[in-house]
Amino acid sequence: MDLKSQKLVITIDHDRYLNWKLFLTNEFKKITSKNVEIDCRDINLSCKEILSLIEISNEFDCKIIGFFSTSTSTIISAQSLGYPSQLILKKSSSNSNKINNVCPDLSTTRFHQGTVRSGEYVESSGDLLILGDVNPGAIVKAEGNVIIWGRLLGIAHAGSKGNSKAKIAALQLRPVQLRIANKVARGPKGENQLGLAEQATIDSEKIIISPLELT
Amino acid sequence: MGTDTRVILICSGKGGVGKTTLTANLGISLARQGLTTAVLDADFGLRNLDLLLGLENRIVYTAQEVLEEECRLDQALVKHKQESNLSLLPAGNPRMLDWLKPDDMKSIVNMLKEQFKYVLIDCPAGVEDGFKNAMAASQEAIVVTNPEVSAVRDADRVIGLLNTNSIKPVQLVLNRVRPKMMASQEMLSIDDVTDILALPLLGLVLEDEQVIVSTNKGEPLTLNSINSPAAKCYLNIAKRLQGEDIPLIDPIEESSGFGAKFRRLMQTKIF
Fold first, then answer.
1. pLDDT at B245 over 60
2. A94 and A13: one domain?
3. Runs of H (alpha helix) within chain A
């Protein structure tokens, strides 16, 4: 069997191993495969931690080809470093229910990577994070917030089930139309300032646009 | 041949932006360079690639008859009069609109791949069945658009569909560019278009009255009037398609009328 092409999944079970880095080092020593996928379970890993994980794998001449996790922040970190990664939705065990109560939207956040083009429609039952532009003619819709790491030139609808606290944020906010909960507004005219991320929220029954606040 | 044949879909979404004209001229240009090329007219409801190439009166069979084994492929292929490297295959008869399925298209293209280095598929306008059939058989695509909001919007839609069907690479041709209007900012600029569509630009084609003349005569520009502005653009696109590095023309430079020169002079003084 060709070991180099073999795929191996390492599962980090942090209930048993307090220090996952140590665990991983031990695990890498044992394996013969070169291509490894990592299942991070529900550990929250930052970009830095993923980089150190990759460093460990490099020491053993292993190549990490992808990540699995039930944690959205791990997936964001892995995606932003350019690794293919997949969010695994949790089964309704007692443990996950507890987490869901703390932060109800986290497990239903949807990612869309790439440009949303005219005629396309992206919907999420939680928050929606788009890494790319939303072009004119496209519609993006979420029951929670809509966050666009790119330009919003189409139509965005946040809080589609009536959550008027939801917001729409984009690096460049120049939509055809904005909708939050049951409010509709036309997009602003003219060029906006470059390099200034903006957000749209409802303030006293009106949709207003302001510089993005990190809350 | 066979494996290294390039099957290129030429599509736009919107009608009338110049898909068929580009297909005909690109076909001639590639054939000129000694490459065996087949142009497949997938727009069989309103077929007119044969008109542009001046081959209307030579069509006897179509791909439909080939698939039904009523004739051989080489009987259906119409060789161009002057460019023997170029052949036309009409996909079907306008009378029978719904016989073609994506699988039929694939088998036609697979047959063409045996004989040709390039297969150019002239896609019908719209994003319905005709487009889906044509897309099923293609590996890469050229999206044609005009510097108009509606054409860009439709092109964007088409690019989305091409991406979901993992057709790569997808390249852009900006057709009917009017340098004077672009210089005076009355028309969408090249940057405006590439900003939205986010595709590599394969080439620009300048607006040229000769295109209308050549269409009516059934002689593509690249065949006999190589010195017309649009023909040069088509030839450059054909060369770039083969990986040659030819710089894009600057439409602002091209608008060499007195007005544009004066305006440029004014701008240089201001800044």
1. yes
2. yes
3. 20-30, 47-59, 72-80, 94-102
Return the CATH number at A167.
Answer: 2.160.20.70
A134 and A42 in a common domain: no
| B270 pLDDT more than 50 | no
A1 domain-assigned: no
- The predicted model gives A190-213 an average pLDDT of 86
CATH number of B6-270: 3.40.50.300
Give chain A positions within 8 Å (CB) of B157: 117-120, 137
Going across the sheet that includes A7-11, the strands are A7-11, A35-39, A63-69, A85-87
> Would A2 be classed as within a structural domain?
no
The residue segments making up the domain with residue A89 are 7-102
Least confident of A28-37, A46-55, A135-144, A149-158: A28-37
One domain for residues A144 and A62: no
CA distance A35 to A16: 24
> Domain limits of chain B?
6-270
A residues 142-181 lying closer than 8 A (beta carbon) to B: 153
Whole-angstrom distance, CA of residue B146 vs CA of residue B172: 10
For A24-64, the DSSP string reads: HHHHHHH---SEEEEE-TT----HHHHHHHHHHHHHTT-EE
The pLDDT score that the predictor gives to residue B146 is 96
ω before B169 within 30° of 0 (cis)?
yes
Closest residue in B to A152 (Cα–Cα) = B196
Q: Are A121 and A141 in contact (CB under 8 A)?
A: yes
C-alpha span between A106 and A126 (Å, rounded): 7
A172 and A151 belong to one structural domain: yes
Give the tens place of pLDDT for each residue, A24-68. Answer: 777 777 777 777 778 777 777 777 788 887 888 888 887 888 888
| Among candidates B153, B163, B198 on the partner chain, residue whose Cβ is nearest the Cβ of A118 | B153
Same domain, A121 and A195: yes
Task: Give CA–CA dist B126/B128, Å, rounded.
Answer: 6
Measured between alpha carbons, how far is B194 from B172 in angstroms, rounded to an integer? 8
Q: State the nearest Cα–Cα gap between B149 and chain A, in angstroms.
A: 10
